[in-house]
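Suppose you are handed only these lines of text.
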Amino acid sequence: MKEIEERGRKRSLLSVHPLSPPILVIEGQEKINFCSNDYLGLAQDPRLVEAACQAARDYGAGSKASCLVGGHYDLHEACEREVAAFKNTEAALILNSGYQANIGLLPILATRGDVIFSDALNHASLIDGCRLSRAKKEVYSHHDLEALEGALKKAAQARKRWIVVEGVYSMEGDVTPLPEILALAEKYEAYVYLDEAHATGVFGKEGRGLVEYFEDQGHSLKTDRLWQMGTFGKALGSFGAYVAGDRGWMDYVVNTCRSFIFTTALPPPVLGAIRKAVEIVPQESERRRRLWQWVKMFQGVSPIIPIIIGSEQATLHIHERLLEEGFFVQGIRPPTVPRGTSRLRLTLSASHTQEHIVAFKKVLERG
Ligand SMILES: Cc1ncc(COP(=O)(O)O)c(C=O)c1O
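From them, the structure of the protein bound to pyridoxal-5'-phosphate can be written out as follows.
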């Protein structure tokens, strides 16, 4: 701790209390939240809350065991069917969090003799998943398709090749060029592992993610080399993660993925909320329309808008000043982002009103 403190890197937990979104209370004062991942404003939606309560009344507060030892209720199975339909895949599995999904799936997919090609700005959970894998790792610069192709060419002798990317980069807010990545995978007989934590619910006409988004734009994507995972803790307002694809692939996960096998199944209230969110998200396009209206006002390409400050101290200072003005925006520092790129990571939500957005923009523009 001493070392961390001396480097000015100490981080502490902040106790916040959510009121009606996007308002929360910090140290007795109301602030407008500009850093949650609740992009569609569903986390406190009364329908999700009631679905969680109903699942608790019907099934209890806990699932009592791991999925393979009796914790996989009919509720989990129904949820997986609905998620597969939402993702337009043959099957899906629910995992306990995005972090657990990435550290469990990557090691069973990419193994000894394989090569992983990992985008340099991938999320920590993807990096940890790659570290746990026995495959060789090649990190290529962010979105650099030429570098990726060069590395793929060199790895022609590998048993399998895995390209690991995020759909929407959690700290950059930019979007992965999925059609080009899939084309490279096809050309070099590679597989693509796509983390849609920040794309699910937000991208595509019905919020089904990047495949839908690019197909909406007229691309015709071949997805037989694509493993898609995403989370329910962000736009879907709940908790947990999914992996979606062929049934045979899901069988392999059930039989080998340690972070799926050796953990208690998600509790029924969480499943209740997920199911309600999966029902609402494709239907309520109005939420996405409003969200994208705010994104355009910030000239963003996703609801994640990074404002790069550079220095860690300056970032903290601006965070404090914004908080005094009534806006809660978290400052993000190394090791979460590379050194010298400390930033404010502001996020937009359908729960923001025009007044919130205009007021916040005014404060930012004033400097
Ligand atoms: C890209 C990405 N993947 C995975 C995760 C982890 O998901 P979860 O919060 O469900 O563990 C996050 C953030 O939390 C993320 O930003």
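What can we learn from it? The mean pLDDT is 97. DSSP finds 14 helices and 14 strands in the chain.
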